[in-house]
Specification:
It is built from 18 helices and no strands. By secondary structure, it is mainly alpha-helical. Keywords: Cell membrane, Copper, Electron transport, Heme, Iron, Membrane, Metal-binding, Oxidoreductase, Respiratory chain, Translocase, Transmembrane, Transmembrane helix, Transport.
């Protein structure tokens, strides 16, 4: 029996569900030896939420220290460890694995594949994250404490750190290997396992954004591996890549790191664009405006991301010609991003919109991400950036892009596809409390940081002059509110859905949603698309 149900067979859901789920393994073996893309996706999402909580606690330690001037709770060295580990854990432990969880869950469902291409490698790429994350967090308990060189791990600081630095380097190698394996899996799945009739230009944008992201990951993760391996050999094997005493150059580290680091920023935002591109048309009840231009804009962002790395380095003594090149190249990236924002607004224009929680988060994403984009354009200009370098303005900018960009899109995706995953609808009231609480507290936290940065408050300092007190106090109150909203989200939205508490979700909870994932029952059965579906001309409906 095919797992693809034509609309007239909706009353057979339960039968289809039973038919498939008795193949599912049970108990701890199901999770330890998981090869099913849905189970692995679920594990990625739970892991990333656990890391979000750990990274969030570190952020709240930072904000607690900065609530008032003077040293309250932590010495400056530990404070620097908090800022370093907060960044590493959020980037490599929370945001990236969360998007891989979405890719695992949704890409096979969206392209009509039975599973990911390499199911056992998929299992390995998840389980590698557990020892890596453990090693990263355990570095706090090593002699000398956790690394305190900033998440960018700049030399020469990294060459002076204690043994925890080596643990951090090893952990990042393992996470990088996991990312590369996940990317190979996603690329092969998308290129080789699409349902008959689904050409590349008929794929949902989420699959497109992940295809491009996977190529980016394969291109840049080895660059990061090279930078941290050179750091390791400088520390232990007598090389002098980054040590000026032996003829090395610490600025070279920055070039190598940011050649990874800038595409990395887009790795964390492109899948978010894909999620938002699925949600806005569903709730505007219109087809996405300018699908082809969205695909080309995504590819353009990816290509341009390789030629802008040194805009992080305007103050390293770069020649003016270099500053001009990186300044113009960075401003150029705003063009394809602007195309995307225009297309999302054009999709909403004159649509019959409703504002369920996924749409609220998508619009919140659009509003706040665009603000983050504008501050990015400001920082792209070398003369201004030289004033704002390493101030709280930069902190405000990248949190507007990463929290309100990546994280809001992830929340939007959980609310949008969650009913398909769990088979129950979330509570709309609780979803809206989560949205409004998150939006308000986020802005209370990070908006004042623009003013702190403009007034000259440097980042990564545990203490500050008296005139910055009020905005810092405000930011700290906002941060604790924002953290509590995420705990609320887990306890009162996610846990009830995972336990099946709530209204049973229909096969297609959002009437105007398009895509193959809405052709299977809710909750999605353990095995789907064992027989590849045959698609109509639009590649959104199953024939038969």
């Amino acid at each position: 029996m095919s797992a693809v149900l034509p609309p007239h067979a909706a009353h057979d859901h339960d039968h289809a569900h039973d038919h498939h789920d008795h193949h599912a393994p049970h108990g701890w073996r199901r999770w330890l030896f998981a090869t099913n893309h849905k189970d692995i996706g679920t594990m990625y999402l739970l892991f990333s939420f656990a890391m979000l909580m750990i990274g969030g606690v570190l952020a709240l330690c930072i904000r607690a220290e900065l609530f008032q001037p003077g040293l309250q709770f932590f010495n400056p060295e530990l404070f620097n460890s908090f800022t370093t580990m907060h960044g590493l854990i959020m980037v490599f432990g929370a945001i990236m694995p969360a998007f891989v969880g979405f890719a695992n869950w949704m890409i096979p469902l969206q392209i009509g594949a039975s599973d990911m291409a390499f199911a056992r490698m998929n299992n390995l790429s998840f389980w590698l994250l557990i020892p890596a994350a453990t090693m990263l967090v355990a570095s706090f308990f090593m002699p000398g404490g956790a690394p305190a060189a900033g998440w960018t791990l700049y030399a020469p600081l990294t060459l002076q750190m204690g043994p925890s630095m080596d643990a951090g380097i090893f952990a990042m190698h393992i996470m990088g290997a996991s990312s590369i394996m996940g990317s190979i899996n996603i690329i092969v799945t998308i290129l080789n396992m699409r349902a008959p009739g689904m050409t590349l230009m008929k794929m949902p944008l989420f699959a497109w954004t992940w295809l491009i992201t996977a190529y980016l990951l394969i291109a840049v993760m080895p660059v990061l591996a090279g930078a941290i391996t050179m750091t390791l050999t400088d520390r232990h094997f007598g090389t002098s890549f980054f040590s000026p005493a032996g003829g090395g150059d610490p600025v070279m580290y920055q070039h190598i790191f940011w050649f990874f680091g800038h595409p990395e920023v887009y790795i964390m935002i492109l899948p978010a664009f894909g999620i938002v591109s699925a949600i806005i048309p569903a709730f505007a009840r219109k087809r996405l405006f300018g699908y082809t231009s969205m695909v080309y804009a995504t590819a353009s962002i990816a290509i341009l991301s390789f030629i802008v790395w040194a805009h992080h380095m305007y103050v390293t003594g770069m020649p003016v010609t270099g500053q001009l090149f990186f300044m113009y190249a960075t401003m150029l990236i705003a063009v394809p991003t602007g195309v995307k924002i225009f297309n999302w607004i054009a999709t909403m224009w004159r649509g019959s919109m409703t504002f369920e929680t996924p749409m609220l988060f998508a619009i919140g994403f659009l509003f706040v991400f665009t603000m983050g984009g504008f501050t990015g354009l400001i920082l792209a200009m070398a003369p201004i950036d030289i004033q704002l370098q390493d101030t709280y303005y930069v902190v405000a900018h990248f949190h507007y892009v990463l929290v309100a960009g990546s994280l809001y899109a992830l929340f939007a995706g959980v609310y949008y596809w969650g009913p398909k995953w769990t088979g129950v609808m979330y509570s709309e009231v609780r979803g809206k409390i989560h949205f409004w609480g998150s939006l308000i507290f986020f802005n209370v936290t990070f908006f004042p940081m623009h003013f702190l940065g403009l007034a000259g408050m440097p980042r990564r300092y545990a203490d500050y002059p008296l005139q910055f007190t009020d905005f810092n106090a405000l930011a700290t109150i906002g941060a604790f509110g924002f953290g509590l909203m995420q705990v609320y989200f887990f306890l009162f939205v996610c846990v009830p859905m995972m336990r099946g508490k709530g209204e049973p979700a229909p096969q297609k909870p959002w009437e105007a949603a398009e895509g193959l994932e809405w052709e299977i029952p809710s909750p999605a059965p353990f095995h789907t698309f064992e027989t590849p579906p045959k698609l109509d001309a639009t590649a959104t409906k199953v024939i038969g």
